[in-house]
Write a structure and sequence with these properties.
By secondary structure, the protein is of the alpha/beta class. The protein contains ten helices and 15 strands. The strands form three sheets. Strands 3, 4, 5, 6, 7, 14 and 15 form a seven-stranded mixed beta sheet that branches. Strands 10-9-8-11-12-13 form a six-stranded parallel beta sheet. Helix 5 links the parallel strand 9 and strand 10. Helix 3 packs across helix 8. The longest helix has 21 residues. The radius of gyration is 20 Å and the shape is globular. The chain starts with a strand and ends with a helix.
Length: 344
């Protein structure tokens, strides 16, 4: 099989494709021929080694995970004896997180891990595009913020992978949703369920006073200190990006504050049994039409360097998908994406 590897930290060009031995299927495992995977901010951080704290996971001096990528979609090639949920030929999707290795033509995953049948309405690219955003946003909004009807939820970075999922989830939970994005992405965010969209170039949402029960900074661009006054008296600020400040504010406001709080979750490191249950929920919400995929673009496996370059710009819309197999659709831009058209 072919894999995308890197041996040193650096720009996208440190990545290259090479041949590798096919993985050996283990007890209770499923072997999947990957049709599509994604490149996201965690892959960019792992490849570049920045910010520096990322090296605590990816390797201090040099990469210890030569193959990046966690999310995948494809077709079951073989199953181990005793596997009952899947059979060769099944269309499946899921995540290897907290481990890596999905930027490859074949992956092995346990039957009881986060893997599920692809909903009939989605193709491989659309299916894999939903995984990371949903599995990241759900623990923040459901578990940390306990979003409920009547609340007002602001999502900063509402057009990104996590932000677009958060808008849809907050709406599913019955909240009034305010999305923050560029003017160009406002129609998309509105189509995903936002009741109001703020163009960050013309309005600073932090200038509001006591307006939001939840501020979910899906891109880690605004701090708790900057957003605190925009929160309702018992509101909560959530961020996906670790910092020295949030690591102090999180326990202090949780244990000692009777008012506004700050929190972070390391969703990629959560127990795979929790993720498996959440992936099953994702399937239900896709089938009911409450979650739709948002794809920035689909590039060929041979062009995975270009996928990293796109993520590095910080301006992608939804997920950057890599078509590992020629069977996966290749979409040049968001305007051409079937899922973007469906959302709009």
């Amino acid at each position: 099989m072919r894999i995308a590897v890197y041996e040193r930290y650096g720009p996208p060009e440190v990545l290259h494709l090479q041949e590798a031995v096919d993985p050996v299927i283990g007890t209770n495992e499923v072997l999947v021929r990957v049709e599509a995977t994604t490149v996201g901010p965690s892959d960019s951080a792992g490849r570049s080694g920045t910010p520096r704290f990322a090296r605590l996971f990816f390797g201090l001096a040099k990469p210890k995970h030569p193959v990046l990528g966690s999310d995948f979609s494809g077709v079951v090639e073989r199953v181990a004896d005793g596997v009952t949920r899947f059979a060769p030929g099944d269309r499946v999707f899921g995540t290897l997180a907290p481990t890596m290795g999905a930027h490859a033509e074949l992956v092995c995953i346990a039957e009881d891990a986060p893997i599920a049948h692809i909903p009939a309405r989605l193709d491989a690219a659309e299916a894999v595009a939903t995984v990371d955003g949903f599995l990241t946003a759900l623990p923040f909004l459901r578990d940390l913020a306990a979003v409920a009807p009547g609340q007002v939820v602001l999502v900063n970075g509402a057009a990104g992978t996590v932000g677009s999922a958060a808008v849809q989830l907050a709406k599913h939970f019955g909240a009034t949703v305010v999305g923050v994005c560029s003017a160009a992405n406002a129609p998309l965010v509105t189509s995903l369920g936002a009741d109001r969209v703020i163009d960050y170039a013309h309005e600073d949402f932090t200038e509001a006073r006591g307006a939001y029960d939840v501020i979910f900074d899906a891109v880690g661009k605004r701090s708790f200190a900057a957003t605190r006054r925009a929160l309702a008296p018992h509101g909560i600020y959530l961020t996906t990006v670790p910092s020295a400040a949030i690591m102090v504010q999180w326990p202090l406001t949780r244990w000692f504050s009777r008012g506004r709080r700050a929190a972070i979750a390391f969703t990629g490191l959560r127990d795979i049994r929790l993720k498996a249950a959440e992936l099953a929920l994702l399937v239900e919400l896709i089938e009911s039409g409450e979650i739709v995929p948002v794809i920035d673009r689909v590039v060929a496996f041979d062009d995975i360097v270009e996928a990293h370059r796109r993520v590095d710009t910080g301006h992608k819309v939804g997920s950057v998908v890599v078509a590992v197999s020629p069977a996966a659709p290749r979409v040049a831009s968001p305007a051409d994406s079937p899922s973007a058209k469906a959302a709009s």
